[in-house]
Amino acid sequence: MQNPQYSVVIPVYNSSKSLIELIPKIKQVFENSIRESYEIILVNDSPNNEQTRKTLDKLNTKFESLIIIELFRNFGRPGALLAGFKESRGDYIIMMDDDLEHPPEVIPKLIENQGHDIVIAYFSKKTHNIFRRIVSKIKGWFDYKLLGKPKHIKNSGFKLINRKIIDAVNKLHTPNPFISALLFYVSRDIVNVEIPHGRRKYGKSGYSFVKLLSQFSNLLFNNSSFMLKIIFYIGIFFFFISIVLITYFIYLRFIKEEVVAGWTSLIVLELFFGGLILFSLGIIGEYLIRIISVTEKRPAYIIKEKTS
After folding, report:
1. Cα atoms in the Cβ-side hemisphere of radius 13 Å centred on 33
2. Which end of the chain is least crowded, N or C, by CB within 10 Å?
């Protein structure tokens, strides 16, 4: 069987009505506007939701270009996406959400820029509530600082990615993946495409405050060495500050003789060993950074079954 030109990878979480609307729209866009071979990969990240399972079964019998991947349990959106990436066959992979906030009608705009490694849709005006917009702004700053995202690029979960980038991402192993971190690690050939932001018509967002916090912790601890580097720099800073203070207190004791006998030796020892401990923590942190980079090999997902 010849590989399709495009693979659309969609993580599915407790969705039913939106999928019934979304899949025909994607089919219409590819068959009427793009007119290239394609496959749609739906990765069910909510295997215990019976309604979602029934909807996927119905869609699978209706659409020939559909592939359904069932995970054993809820691994989260990044794990579901990686499962879809692994099973995809297209020369270009389009990742998008299942809630209609990513309108299929703009996929041709992404394809127009497929000469770049990564094409990211950004929304001219977001329909999210004020809390989600604030969180998005904060996350964008951390993406720039921690992941090396180009400053002028605005990030979103609606992307078109070259096959070579996906193949490279599939070789990276981490139990708590952050998709943007993996993509930005592989390539910086990234371009933005402005699109309208679709509205969620059914249900509520699965991104609760706890899940957003969990994603942020994955970014901070599992996909960057930011915290370890902070400890490293703090350790070096306080070590040198302690050296300066030790020199100053010795000067007061032996040159000016302005301190009580015994106090200088006590404070010098405390400063020296305190600074040395912080400096040592910094060194340990640097070693941990290097150890983590080569030891994270646990799978981010486990496929239960694949039907097409």
Report:
1. 15
2. N
17: which residues sit within 8 A by CB, 6+ positions away? 201, 202, 203
Q: Which amino acid is at 168?
A: A
H/E element holding 306?
strand 303-307
- Which residues have CB under 8 Å from 237's CB, separation 6+? none
Q: At what angle do helices 263-295 and 226-251 cross, to 10 degrees?
A: 160
Residues 6+ apart with CB under 8 A from 137: none
Asked if residues 198 and 102 have their Cβ atoms less than 8 Å apart, the reply is yes
Q: Does the structure show a pLDDT above 70 at 55?
A: yes
- Residue 148 and residue 292: Cα distance in Å, rounded? 19
> pLDDT at residue 292 above 70?
no
| Across 250-261, average pLDDT | 68
State the pLDDT confidence band at 20, using cuts at 50, 70 and 90: very high
C-alpha–C-alpha distance, residues 216 and 226, integer Å:
12
What pLDDT shows up at residue 307? 78
Q: Is the pLDDT of residue 18 over 80?
A: yes
Owner of token pair 């407790």: 14
Cα separation, 79 vs 45, whole angstroms: 9
Q: Cα separation of 85 and 262, whole Å?
A: 67
